[in-house]
Amino acid sequence: MRTLVPGLLAGALTLAAAGAAHAQRGDITVSQAWTRAVGATAPTAAGYLTLRNRGATPDRLIGAATSAARAVEIHEQRSEDGVMRMRPLPDGVPVPPGETVTLGPGGTHLMLVGPTRPLVRGERVPLTLRFERAGEVRVELSVEAAGARQPAHAGH
Ligand SMILES: [Cu+2]
Prior knowledge:
Low-confidence stretches: 1-5, 7-19
Largest sheet: 11 strands, mixed
Number of helices: 1
Bound molecules: copper (II) ion
Shape: globular
Structural class: mainly beta
Radius of gyration: 15 Å
């Protein structure tokens, strides 16, 4: 994944409306929010995004919700004895000051449990993230192809 020039990122965020693939609230910015297309009967869908803490105080992603799924859990995924396993992260995801944390394939991710409808490639799925300090941040997951390994607009 290419890295955005900080100045350009700040400019882009100023223009971003609430509910876009980029969002900002307080010291927290959210970008590269995406998921994959799934059918109506899929038990789960994964959500990925990049979190940045521009402030001087630690924050933490503690929850999320979307109308497109029954629940959203925060999972970590790791290989144990050669087997990939997922488990919920009850304490959420720390976002230390000045750092960027990426939730992506093969690692920490959001798990949309029980999608309430098909997720169609090209659409955007509203998602509300809840942070310990920054509060609620509304963003949209862009729905990529079923086998996508990264968002189509990575590098914008
Ligand atoms: Cu999971």
